[in-house]
């Protein structure tokens, strides 16, 4: 009797809307998903619940739980519902539910398991730490900013660059996150706010070591827009450089980059918030052995965010993960740099390799 083939394991590292977007697209495929999320959230409803109940931030895990949900839409909407008046004003129903389960079970991890059963999630949500995390940022002028919320929405001069971030006191890594990363077939970092959602996960040397040791392909999904106070005037190269500053060089195998610029009308709103479209110059990465998966990954309307389905298609192409979802069309496989040189793909494949520098290969995927 033939053995049942093991589902491929994909780990998404980050937090907030970015992780939600990646998981929403990938959950349509027959893979096992895990999200390793930052636990530094200290604003809004989460701040109050952290202070009053002494629990880990429920707002840090809620987006990933909802993304992995296979329950009715009404239940997912309920989980995201935010009260707008009364004693619960500003509180999110999902945050309150996680808090209640933590009080009932005496464990944040058990609360996540219980919430997962309620939402019928397909996968796991794993905090990068189970400690009470206080995130700090040191600015270029030496000023210290305390708390993820103030880093995310600066009360200080947002034109000042962030030199580094750190936890004070230091936090211990969640060992479950290490085990999950080591077992992965594909590791996806981002997209999301660089200093308040992604890099806090890379403050743990054990997570960095696990990513390095993992046999999985490592992918960074570059942001579409810069963020005032965190990534002012950043190009794609700046984003990659900051990731490698924490992760180390020659670890990333791929970077997913969107080359479709939003319409002027959509960008205007973001310009008021001092955000800019992220660009990639041909020669920026000439000395890096990273493959660029370039294409139109922009949502066709609404907020300027990645299209979950188009992003998932690109990610599933890597390391033999291409399978069919309910609405999936077959895409050409990504070739190796050597085979690309010897056997250039035909025009109809939609992939156009262009070599830059030593070992650099840029690919444009027309989805």
CATH class: Alpha Beta
Examine the secondary-structure arrangement and name the CATH architecture.
3-Layer(aba) Sandwich
CATH level-four homologous superfamily name: CofD-like domains
Determine the CATH topology. Answer: Rossmann fold
Query: Radius of gyration, rounded?
Result: 20 Å
Give the strand order, joined by hyphens, for the main sheet: 3-2-1-7-8-9-10-12-11
What's the number of domains?
A: 1
| Structural class computed from helices and strand pairing | alpha/beta
Mean pLDDT: 87
Please, what is the oligomeric state? Answer: single chain
Tell me about the largest β-sheet. 9 strands, mixed
What is the terminal separation in angstroms? Answer: 39 Å
Report the count of strand segments. 12
Helix content: 25-40%
Shape: globular
Question: Tags for this entry?
Answer:
35% helix, three-stranded antiparallel beta sheet, alpha/beta, nine-stranded mixed beta sheet, disordered C terminus, Rossmann fold, 367 residues
């Amino acid at each position: 009797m033939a053995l049942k083939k093991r589902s491929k394991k994909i780990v998404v590292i980050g937090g907030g809307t970015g992780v939600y977007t990646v998981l929403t697209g990938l959950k349509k495929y027959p893979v096992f998903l895990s999200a390793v999320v930052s636990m530094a959230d200290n604003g809004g409803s989460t701040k109050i619940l952290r202070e009053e109940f002494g629990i880990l931030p429920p707002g840090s895990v809620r987006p990933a739980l909802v993304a992995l949900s296979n329950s009715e839409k009404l239940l997912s909407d309920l989980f995201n519902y935010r009260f707008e008046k009364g004693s619960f004003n500003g509180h999110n129903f999902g945050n309150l539910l996680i808090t209640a389960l933590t009080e009932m079970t005496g464990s944040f991890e058990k609360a996540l398991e219980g919430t997962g059963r309620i939402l019928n999630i397909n996968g796991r949500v794993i905090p990068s730490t189970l400690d009470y995390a206080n995130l700090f940022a040191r600015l270029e002028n030496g000023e210290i900013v305390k708390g993820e919320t103030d880093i995310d929405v600066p009360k200080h001069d947002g034109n000042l660059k962030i030199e580094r971030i750190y936890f004070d006191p230091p936090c211990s890594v969640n060992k479950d996150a290490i085990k999950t990363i080591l077992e992965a077939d594909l590791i996806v970092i981002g997209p999301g706010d660089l200093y308040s959602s992604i890099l806090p996960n890379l403050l743990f040397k054990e997570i960095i070591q696990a990513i390095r040791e993992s046999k999985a392909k490592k992918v960074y999904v570059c942001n579409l827009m810069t963020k005032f106070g965190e990534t002012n005037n950043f190009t794609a190269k700046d984003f990659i450089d900051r990731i490698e500053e924490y992760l180390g060089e020659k670890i990333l195998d791929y970077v997913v980059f969107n080359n479709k610029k939003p319409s002027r009308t959509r960008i205007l709103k973001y310009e008021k918030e001092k955000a800019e479209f992220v660009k990639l110059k041909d020669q920026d990465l000439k000395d890096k052995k990273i493959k660029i998966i370039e294409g139109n990954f922009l949502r066709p309307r609404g907020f300027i965010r990645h299209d979950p389905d188009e992003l998932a298609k690109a990610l599933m192409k890597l390391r033999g993960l291409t399978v069919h979802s309910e609405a999936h069309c077959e895409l050409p496989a990504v070739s190796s740099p050597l085979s690309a040189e010897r056997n250039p793909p035909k025009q109809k494949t939609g992939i156009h390799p262009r070599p830059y520098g030593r070992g650099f290969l840029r690919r444009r995927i027309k989805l």
